[in-house]
Sequence to fold (851 residues):
Amino acid sequence: MALRLPRIGTSQIVALGLILVANWIVSPQFFDIRVQDGRLFGSLIDVFNRGAPVALLSIGMVLVIAMRGIDLSVGAVMAICGAIAASLADTHSLPVVLAAALGAGLLCGLWNGLLVAVLGIQPIVATLILMVAGRGIAQLITEGRIVTFTSPDLAFLGGGSVLGLPTPVVLTLGMMALTLALVRGTALGLMIEATGGNPRASALAGIGTRFITVGVYVWSGLCAALAGIVASADILGADANNAGLWLELDAILAVVIGGTSLFGGRFSIILAVVGAFIIQAMNTGILLSGFPPETNLVVKAVVVLTVLLAQSPRLGGHFAGIGVLFKRSKSGGKRS
Amino acid sequence: MHATETLPPPLLALTGFSKSFAGFVALDHVDFTLHAGEIHALLGENGAGKSTLIKAMTGVVHRDAGTLRLDGVAIAPRSAEEAVRAGIATVYQEVNLAPNLSVAQNLFLGRQPTRFGLVREGEMRRRARALLGEFGLSIDVSAPLESYSVAIQHIVAIARAVDQSARVLILDEPTASLDAHEVEVLFAVMRQLTSRGIGIVFVTHFLDQVYAVCDRITVLRNGRLAGSAPVDELPRLDLVRLMLGRELSEATSRRPPVVEGEARADVATFRGVGKAGTIAPFDLALRAGHVVGLAGLLGSGRTETVRLVFGAERADCGAAEVAGRAVSIGSPREAMALGFGYCPEERKTEGIVAELTVRENIALALQARRGALSPLSRREQDALAAKFIGLLDIRPPDPERPVGLLSGGNQQKVLLARWLATAPRLLILDEPTRGIDVGAHAEIIGLIRNLCREGMALLVVSSELEELVTYADEVVVLRDRAHVARLTGAQIEVSTILATIAEAPSSVPLSADAA
Fold:
């Protein structure tokens, strides 16, 4: 594993900026923002609004990947929790709806965590179980139909706004702040990075690696539940077949773009969220440019390849020289 | 061997083999000669360079310098396959075959007899039976390899290697997982091969096996050739001395005057603690300001002992008492709560977290003990790092450097700092001076003495006997996974320890070496 000096995320911020500028070139109104009914509208706002579900997923995913794990089930968990929220929305109050959906996400995370930490199943296999089964569970909840609802309370979480910002963006920022406080405000972040970096050494240093492993999967389940609620609230219904479909891959990609290695260790929550918005900015840009949407997948593939090549220890040396140009003086500070 | 000039050239001759990895010298001008029909033991402790030498002669790693001659002809294999084609085959401890394929398929994998591009199964089985018959083995060759014992799997691997026209056969710890009878079968096969003029390099940790089957012994130590002699010219005691060696600077060999103090307070007492198949039940008393050393050869149970003490392995018998109270130590966390600390032997895989900084590595154990919810503030971490970087002279003195970029000695100091930060009552050090330069040796030994003076109890595993005798108040000698002797006072001498290690060992090796 290559040793990396602390990163400051310059490359991710620059990449997001470049993509946004590219969007502006293909669509000159891209940066136009107007206010309507006290809410901001515009293509730029749309990037953040549409990117919110993947950004939420990436907040949980980055912790799992930092622990050398992976959570393939988040898309299916979104479908389950979205289905629960949509089914209950018109008959129960919002707190009950949220508690039920978030509780389901928590249980899904607990299931994954126990499979990985207690039974010692490889994370990719353990979470594959729920990835496959979860969509079936969601279909059972919706009884195979597309469930719709009219509750304005739940709809607010998808289409409303707080201080002019779309609610999904506010929820994402809130979840990010909460996770940062939980992980960087305590010693959990250090313990996660230590365990991901060297699990045996961390266990011998007295870190409760098993407990933390369960914890990160539970958190990933919660993030996925919130993403599922947002997605359902946005379309005023739940489609068990398509909600969150393949979004686990976008979330993993966002984490990797954010500079967290799939080998675990050092991680950055903020940069993972930036990664999610980079992906959404690309999606939006391709739509705006008038290219067929299919090209989106090819562009994404090229980005993934570039990121992975840049992370490869064998090629790392060639990129290191470029990195030096961006590096500021030793930052040293706690990164998020 | 007086008429050397009239003899044919040796089967295999290595001269001046050198190899370094990123500044660490793994092999330093090693010579090695193997004659046809000879079983040649290659011995040495962990890190002595045996594996590197084998990998360098089979082309798995590229040597920096040196020549390799097979039958007097210089060869330079660049991969294991090329080495096999040249006539040098290796059989590793972990049999490198496909367990789900049949014995016959394994024997002829990649070189199956074919007709019109199709594998001739019948012909393959016939040849397989004939081949194994030469080794006195008559088994169903169409059964999957995994249905047979490890010993038979080894013989299949050897048969495959020999059938690929091997002239030189390298056996890397083939007996580690065999029982006594299986070892005999393997030895019979080895002797038969030598009668065909094949030369065998035999790597093992079991000294009695060396004397049972080998013709010649070569010992490596710290990447250098420590000695080479016919087996009957190298008695067991001399062999052990060669393996453990004597390399010491003046500064570390002085033994400080023994302070005959009052009876020290017991920190921890272990009675009858052991684990089946790992280490026989032992008693151990650890006192404040007292250093207990564990001495023995590799695989004798030293590391296993300290892992039981620290709870990294769970004992299946015995009782432990800490500060007068009966305790059960089931995990490192429980051991830490009792005030224990453990610097493991495998620094890279079990000690440091390479990508974290020096500061974070030092804070890790203290943080783990405080729990995630009461984090050490950045200022406390900085103070901790600054204190120990100064105290232990960690270089470079940069707390924000990833610890993987430090030298071995400085990594060891960071690990020591991690545990000293928790102010332990008992500190366990497993090979604290392994793989670090001579200067750092002296510093770490000085540190051990200071800690002891301050009243910490220490349990130290060391292969560096000359060092061990200078600071240990008591030395426990281990052999074949059991504590066999306890030396105190004037008994603590290198010669006494060596003699105890080399004393008539049990003839039956115990079960598999966990290492």
Notes: Residues 247-254, 507-515 of chain B have pLDDT under 50 and may be disordered. Chain B has two domains: 4-244, 267-502. The domain at 267-502 of chain B is CATH 3.40.50.300 (Rossmann fold). The longest helix of chain B spans residues 180-195.
